[in-house]
# Entry
Amino acid sequence: MTLLSVVGLHAWYGRAHILQGVDLHVGRGEVVALMGRNGAGKSTTLKAVMGLLPERRGRVAFDDQDVTSLPPHRIARLGMGYVPEDRRVFAELTVRENLEVGRQPPRYGAPTWTPERLYALFPNLAEMKERRGARMSGGEQQMLTLARTLMGNPSLLLLDEPSEGLAPRIVQQMAEAVRTLKAEGLSVLLSEQNLGFAAAVADRALVIEKGRIRWEGAMHDLLADEAARRAYLAV
# Structure
């Protein structure tokens, strides 16, 4: 059953036409990896879906509701969570306080998260509940940003470059967390360049190049398609 449907999505930064008719869907309980090189349009796609880009055209439907013209805060209230690449934690707040900022009531059809459940998911955060965001490493901040978004009890998570710039140990922990989220029934659309990370968590892959989806299929099929990887993912 489809939770997110995107049809003919175009987006601009000023006069630059970045997305040129993106079509994609995410099923309930599915993890989909949007892959591509730097500048291909991965992060722009997530921002456009979340309503963060004022200049866009197309149709975005979430949970059978057209959200194309809604502002980001209203989309979030419907159950779509967004984790940006740049780890926007509240630097002067503690881990515990950051989590409280994200707290929302339980949502029908979505996993319900509490600080205690998130500390179990991210043991690193459990050890630093009273540490301020400014005193955390990049990987710890990434975990906190994800955990704070989960406090909103989303049914769909947009996860932008979750492994970017992280130490291998933290990347492994993030992959384990995403697999746990899937087991909880959460749907995830993640943008990612790291093929190993994507392969560890995703059911399907989409490959974007110059603002268009060029390849789509099961994750294991992408791993087997050397020509597609060379054409669209090789640096």
Notes: Residues 38 and 193 are 8 Å apart (CA to CA).
